[in-house]
Amino acid sequence: MSGVEYTVEFRAYSDDAWYSVNLSPEPDGDLRVSYTNISKKCDNVFHARNFSSWKEVEEFKGRFRKVSKQLQDEECRSVVNGMIVCACCEFINGDCRFYDARVKEFKGRLIGGLAMEGVGKGSGKEHYSTLRRV
Prior knowledge:
Elements: E1 6-11, E2 18-25, E3 31-35, E4 44-46, H1 54-61, E5 64-65, E6 69-70, E7 84-90, E8 96-106, E9 114-118, E10 131-133
Domain SAWADEE: 5-107
InterPro entries: SAWADEE_dom
Organism: Lupinus luteus
């Protein structure tokens, strides 16, 4: 399977944010997770021998999903209270991370009219700018 890559989203262990990644099997059966547009030195290599139970394997599988699609302007009317979206959280240093969030209040417009609460343990932010459909 060498040379085959799959593009998906991965919820990183370090901050629980979602990142676009490429997956590639290693010759020894390990799995390389390469973050899109991030240095190769940040790649993670996961070794099958390090999983000690099926529960750990299932939790690991749950950290992957198909790439989420950015919500388009014409889809604004489909946003409703309680909806779970993947939202961009911008930090002071310009860093932008995506977290799953639940819409708390929608006032009919996406910018400035949306209040959300984080679903993942890493988010905890109340202000998001870009939405993706989960």
